Amino acid sequence: MTDPRTPDRSAAALAALAEQTIELPSWAFGNSGTRFKVFGQPGVARDPFEKIEDAAQVHRFTGAAPRVSLHVPWDLVDDFGKLAAHAADLGVSIGAINSNLFQDDDYRLGSLTHPDEAVRDKAVAHHAQCVDVMRATGSTDLKLWLPDGTNYAGQDDLRARQDRLADSLQQVYALLDPGMRLLLEYKFYEPYFYAMDIPDWGTSLLHCLALGEQATVVLDTGHHAPGTNIEFIVMQLLRVGRLGAFDFNSRYYGDDDLIVGSADPFQLFRIMNEIVAADALRPDSGVNFMLDQCHNIEPKIPGQIRSVLNVQEATAKALLVDRQALTAAQQSGDVLAAHGALTDAFSTDVRPLLAELRESKGLDADPYAAYARSGHAERTARERVGGTQASWGA
Ligand code: LRH
Ligand code: MN
């Protein structure tokens, strides 16, 4: 039941959507919250094995979430080979390995930027541990969000911190095996409030260019100043071949880590429009589409399913843009026709197309409702008693 008005675009969209994959964050299946409260929920995963079981539920119903990214040390286990085998048994694989430089007392004044070489060495050594986990799980992406920063002007020498950072990153980069990538994530504020040492895409890119081809930028959609034109950054990073990954989520004010597309679906569409325009949706484009979210008050598996559906919907709309009409209008300076080419696609109800995609994969047309009917939530709430629910452990 492809759209009779755009038979070719619908067919091409279906083909592209069939290959789209979204990587899920293990920490979305543990408890999370704000500095005020971390809420528990019945049946929440208690260890990395259960987190992967929950992530596999999202893939089972959406058919588009075959990888789970892990966070070290939150997901430390005795045998990562066993964890990877467990994932494979459930039809998923281990994705990016995230380092953690934001929960250690030694890193109060910095980690890879710290004035004390011993502290920097410790932070570099943590990445050697992460690379060992990558070797044990078959992961190829080392994801490094640098939480370092300062709170007061003059607290430290901004340039000296950059020089120390460059040296530390070189040491981390040298740990990578061929075929591995370093994904360098920026954030404009929090946990520090005067200056973050990698506050923006430009700073991350500068360090990546200095490191080498295996270093790329992570764009977390919650890590920009309000009003930032994020799709412009997407376009520019694609243009120089250094967009390694997204951390998708939504926000109203800060790094809210809400369900992607829930706050501003048109922004998510504009981002995916730049991806499609640059033909970067292909599995071999080198862009890892990941979620980075926390379901503080809502059920976690349905929250992740809703998130995958939101990315698929934004992608489907971007794939339905009449690019011939768009280019013609842009070339002829027809401002409203050009804008209209995007808003027409954005206003298209793509749910029938996505239902067709899922049925073509033998999946239920409505993954959200299908999961609710599965009884999995009730079963885990019944069975997962005792033990300690997983969380950020801050
Ligand atoms: C930092 C961040 C980073 C993860 C963390 C869970 O705000 O976006 O990507 O390590 O969230
Ligand atoms: Mn992130």
Q: What do you see in this structure?
A:
It comes from Geodermatophilus dictyosporus. Keywords: Isomerase, Manganese, Metal-binding. By secondary structure, the chain is of the alpha/beta class. It has a single domain, classed as Alpha-Beta Barrel (TIM Barrel). Helices cover 45% and strands 11% of the residues. It contains 14 helices and ten strands. The strands form two sheets. Strands 1-2-3-4-6-8-9-10 form an eight-stranded parallel sheet. Strand 2, helix 3 and strand 3 form a beta-alpha-beta unit. Helix 1 runs antiparallel to helix 9, helix 2 packs across helix 13 and helix 8 crosses helix 9. The radius of gyration is 21 Å and the shape is globular. 44% of the residues are buried. The model has no long low-confidence stretch (mean pLDDT 96). Bound molecules: 6-deoxy-beta-L-fructofuranose and manganese (II) ion. 6-deoxy-beta-L-fructofuranose (LRH) binds next to loops. Manganese (II) ion (MN) binds next to loops.
